[in-house]
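pinging the channel bc i need a second pair of eyes. not urgent but kinda urgent?? the chain im working w is below, pasted from the shared doc
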Amino acid sequence: MQIKYLDGKRFYRGLLAGGKALIRNQTYLNKINVFPVADSDTGINLAMTMKAILESSRISISIKETLRNVADSALNGARGNSGIIFAQYLHGLSRELPESGVLTVKNFAHSAHKAVSHLYDSIMNPVEGTMITVIREWAENLVEQSGKTSDFFHVITDSLTAARKSLQETPRKLKVLADAGVVDAGACGFVTFLEGVVEYIQSGSLKETAVLPGFPEETELTEGHTIAPDEYRYCAEAVMGNLSVPLQKVKDSISGLGDSLILAGGLEKLHIHIHTNEPEKLFDKLFRLGEIISSKVDDMLRQYQISHDRKYPIGIVTDTACDLPLELLDKYQISRIPFGINFGSRLYLDKLTISPDRFYHMLKYGKVHPVSSQPPPVTVKNHLEFAATHYEHIIAVHISDKLSGICQTSSVLIDKMEEGKASVINSRHLSVSEGLVTLRIARAIEAGAGFSQIVQDSGRWIADTRIYTDINTLKYMVRGGRVKPLAGMVASILNLKPIVSLDSEGKAIAWGKSLSRKRNMAKILRQIKSELDSKTLWEYAIVHADAEERALKYGEALTALTGKKPVYIMSLSPVVGVHNGVGTVGIGVSYD
């Protein structure tokens, strides 16, 4: 067999074969993931990067045009350190290829070698013994082999041997790998990709095959593999377009906010990756530098806990409309899926790239009223599948299906899982009452209750939970289209202060109104007192939209009434505050 040239179609078929190999072996890559953080997502990240490439790329007879399309898709869809490194290498290769319609061995080898410099330039602190080392040594071998033959078949197969050798040497170059007794996961992913390409060249078939040779079913990892993220908690990514400053300016602006900084692409489209504790500050800076096309923030600590240090056999996934303080989310290792919030052209991730303090300041003084959006299905899918991989069972608790479609999205995805593996709980609540339902499920898991029993009992817990929302003004509901302008104007003239609640189906209802906030508080306290005549209090909690003083007054009054302090007082989620507005206080009460 001889292959004297590559064109766009041949290149894409090889890419397809390598991508399928990566996707097939993602579980093993997740398992050996150590560097830079042991968060068990290298396989997922590379698989999703490849899926983005294979689903979005356009094929041309010209290999350069095809590779440009591939690189663009990769920059859009890349995830994690390894995915962005792979995307940047493709981007560099697309720039170094000659303009000719077909490619010879010598041209390909030299272009692949030149593209390595783009890779190293994109990384703030390149670390040897990782994916970049294997790519570099593979490219060097390509150049060496191209001087001996003009046949792609021999060059690619021989260079795979060099890449495998480089992979096996990664633990000698990076101590954390040696301590864990593994090779680098990203580097292994690149070799897996090459193995898929060679397998295709040898067989001539793109059919689905089993896991590639060299992947042991069981890999025992040493204690070195179980080190939790300690310095930076979040993995933040952004795809930017139309940058108004040079790339060095971008680097200088954000390099002090974390580590593992990678900038892949160029001024027209740039994919940024960084580990940070300040995603809000990061995105504030990025918004000043250009247009953010898409963004993602992963909680690496939670990923580590789920994959290496889980407390319970049942995991909980919720959404950011659920108001629970971070200390309780951490205690019960609860994952949360962020809603989107748009202020004009700026897209924020609820509670991740915008804090409640920042949100309510913008809501109060900004000229543009924000719009909320539910998480994309792919984001929901990623959270659910990651949890399902590591827990015996998972429970997804979501905002009322009468208020958002995320509950339906989760239901569709969970229906495709193994029967009895997972369940979706339509909380029929939001904010503080959704938080209490979720907390109740978490405590049941902590107490050792079984999956089926919890799912069964959740219906009663939901029915025994109430929410009373003391609204300061209707103007935010008018701005957001929830209340007609005329009704808002009348309420303003009469100084009416509405109280909003939810009915048994989870629909928003006007529960009451008063001529003052003081009367609203009295009305809500009377209602809770009357409920306590026939019910036993389990827990209650309070949330507020930039109204901490009023929330504390509710807390004092309810402590006096119930003899029990609130389980928490916290800021109202921005995605809920979009509609309820500044000054709102919400009280959630759950009964036994």
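so The mean pLDDT is 90. and Residues 8-209 form a domain with the Serine Threonine Protein Phosphatase 5, Tetratricopeptide repeat fold (CATH 1.25.40.340). — does that match what u expected or am i reading it wrong
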